[in-house]
């Protein structure tokens, strides 16, 4: 009996972005595209794609966009859903309620939420799979930029609207601040809305989940 | 929907007396929750006829109108249609439940 996980990929980081259909479909995709493009500049192996099962043309439906960043060639490149994400991003705060956003997260996972509410308030709504969650990051991206509402680029079509023009840019900057998954300068080379990203890099609030549990216990 | 193939009704439709479809629960699509001000409500039932998901229940015991929040998507059509402004949309995270 082999105890070692034969399919483990130590260098692989999985990013899952949850958004709302139509309104944030492009923004959810922009977060992973900007991060993976920035990682590609650093010579990493990357993948970015959208969930094939979700319905991005239905207003407010939860939709997912995925990214993989690895220092080694990605062996699981044909696995079309992120089963064990390291980073979970919500482009809209209400997704903490009623959606199992943290399913399968790896230890020391980070959750980034686009919200002006406090991390401890949002954490109360998450009912399951919080054991492996290490950090909650909040950033009021709606205040820094406006969401680009378009289906251009959805489901594999050409995206004519530019990467990181709306709330995707500040969210990606908050991810970089909290996790350091790519260098911030490389991210700025990719995204369009650079001023919002710089502000988000300063304003993102990082809360330690361990401390939040202590204050509520 | 994990239903045996033989038990699926013709054309995948839901039988007519049934009001809910467990295979398509849309409550988690909602970002804003409709709240009724019962004093303003004049029971014209415009919200009931305009709700695309049939989530408005009429003439319940406690209130002229209640909302089926298990399926309400928070589209806001009821608040838009209400002629007296009795329905307001409140951000979903303002509610603990």
Task: Please give a structural write-up.
- The complex is a heterodimer of chains A (217) and B (97).
- Chain A is α/β, with parallel strands linked by helices and 217 residues long.
- Chain A has helices at residues 25-41, 119-123, 141-144, 168-179, 184-190, 194-203, 209-216; strands at 12-20, 45-50, 62-70, 87-90, 109-114, 133-139, 205-208.
- Chain A has a 7-stranded mixed β-sheet.
- The radius of gyration of chain A is 16 Å and the shape is globular.
- Chain A starts with 11 loop residues before the first strand and ends with a helix.
- The model of chain A has no long low-confidence stretch (mean pLDDT 90).
- Chain B has 97 residues and is an alpha+beta fold.
- Chain B has a single domain (21-94), classed as 2-Layer Sandwich (Alpha-Beta Plaits).
- Chain B has helices at residues 46-50, 77-81, and strands at residues 32-36, 56-58, 65-67, 87-91.
- In chain B, the strands form 2 sheets. Chain B has a two-stranded antiparallel ribbon. A two-stranded antiparallel ribbon of chain B has the order 2-3.
- The longest helix of chain B has 5 residues, at 46-50.
- The interface between A and B is medium-sized, with 20 and 13 residues.
